[in-house]
Fold these 2 entries.
Entry 1:
Amino acid sequence: MTAEHCTLAEYLADWSGSDTQKSAVAETIIAMAAASVELAAIIAEGPFARGLADTVGDAGGGDIKKFLDVEAHKLFKDALAGAPVAALGSEEADDAEILNEGAPMVVAIDPLDGSSNIETNVSIGTIFSVLPVGGGMTPSQALLQAGKEQMASGFVVYGPQTTLIMTVRDGTHIFTMSPADRVYRLTHRNVTIATDKAEYGVNASNQRHWPVAIKTYIGDLNAGTDGPREKNFNMRWVGSMVAEAYRIFIRGGIFLYPGDNRKGYEQGRLRLVYEAIPVALLVAEAGGAATDGVRPILEIKPDNLHQRIPLVFGPGQEVDRIAQYIERGGGDENSPLFSERGLLRE
Ligand code: AHM
Ligand code: MG
């Protein structure tokens, strides 16, 4: 093992030095990393553990709550109760939960991302965002700050390997859990999002519900060498955002979960506070961009903990291109679909 493979604890100790606030962030991340190691072990038990994918309730907004969602929430809540965290905002709890009154930060979390994949042996994850509690804010208000205020964010992927991708605003780094001792070690320092990968991730089954701009953009990608992009694009959709995001950090590509005209999906499916905001910081630190189609995610101030947001992320140039489609209200001017629609609108 080379010096490059320092442990997560070593990395964070080196980064925080004797700075009190940074040390508190480090302690919080280490607490969550420990919980994720426990969760990884439960997930790996799969069918030997009690019904991980059993439905145990309704998470609201049409989402189903599974046994593993609830277990994951408990694990992270217990871990964070022992960290300098004032409150936890979780996908699995209606309201912010107070942990340590007076502590300097709050954490927003999706304890188990990709719940629909639990029983399929496909990658699932945990997403987190760490925010400061500033002057005069209540912990609940602190959870609703714009993403640009984050001190740290990250996500864990429970897949063929268990990986933690994280930023403390000093670049985006990947730590992989070594199976022998269940310790996270640095495996990719300063990840940057490749700009030349012709690959996209979107739930294509929603196509008929999308706005014209998104239909046209994806139509132009699918037109391949015959279309305005003059190259063939590949499509990948795992159904766990953590897995799509990890793929994009490793080899590039673009992710979209747009709003669509299904009831309840006007603002897409993903949640602003504990899905889009943490991923947006990781993406920004890796040189990419994340928007709701037009507005940078990190600039959006949430109205409530469980608010949904359309989400696009990947290399800045491709994210900008999608904004241009949306701003034109249709497509790229070179797009055959755009001209067709232009004619239809006359
Ligand atoms: P979850 O947090 O309840 O698992 O829901 C979020 C997931 C994302 O991981 C993924 O991108 C999306 O929902 C998949 O949606 P769809 O069912 O439309 O494929
Ligand atoms: Mg999720």
Entry 2:
Amino acid sequence: MGKDGRDIASLVCARLKSGGRVTVLTGAGISAESGLATFRDMGGLWEQYRVEELASPEGFARNPALVYDFYNLRRAQLNSIEPNSGHLALATLERQVGDGFSLITQNVDDLHERAGSRQPLHMHGELRKARCQACASVLNWPDDLDAKSQCSACGSHALRPHIVWFGEMPFHMEERIPASLTAEVFLSIGTSGHVYPAAGFVAEARQQGALTIEVNLEPSANSEAFDAALYGPAGEILPPLVDAIMAGLSE
Ligand code: BV8
């Protein structure tokens, strides 16, 4: 890790040593090295589909079978991929920092959990869950979902992917995300900064005095809001960065 990385690690340590908390926001980029397609990069999922047809209530109402299939395809992908070193490094940092650590993810995969993160805030929902439109129950759903799938709570056949679509309110916006944006360090990883309200979190954290850091392949759409940045694959950047932070905390 170069000088920039070491400098950033020491800045983070200085904040954490004085009792500071750290909030991490992740996007599709942290799962890219596990083999999950990102939305915007070459071959990104949205290039193959029009997003309005898929990730929106209107698209689901218009063609539920297409939307069920889109999520069934992505859910099935989860069975053949593993968390990568970026997910694992974040879980290590979480164990070190303890209660002062919050993880907000835009991702709907379960790779953070499988890497050992205890309770990521899935603001855009989760692929391996279904939600009943009749009784609002949220059910674990690791397999294919379709119009014939039955709710185990109320017996209806009105299950949808437990995913936040465009135009829908993201989860945890009332209390847990605002609380986590008061942290002293805000670390954004693998997100292009296009999708709101997530893309606005860095400005909120900065306004509250956070040290803001971006780790991404290239500058995101909101890169000017970050105090510092490390560009490259998260799976290569995060392990040495977390190691340097841990070393600094143990001095
Ligand atoms: C809402 C679930 C109201 C679905 C998703 C006009 C202007 C501004 C905003 C809007 C607008 N018109 C409409 C809006 C609002 C809209 C929005 O932001 N639209 C955008 C497209 C303009 N937002 C909404 O509708 C949201 N709801 O606003 O409700 C509201 C608001 C506030 C409070 C109350 C109510 C709902 C948005 C949620 C939509 N659902 N996901 C699904 O997954 O199928 S979003 C979806 O997009 C994914 O969750 C994904 O996370 C996200 C894409 O963003 P990224 O994660 O950043 O992924 P991306 O591919 O874009 O970038 C990856 C980055 O990683 C790249 O920069 C790449 O360089 C980098 N990378 C790649 N490999 C690596 C890497 N980095 C490091 N290492 C690597 N190896």
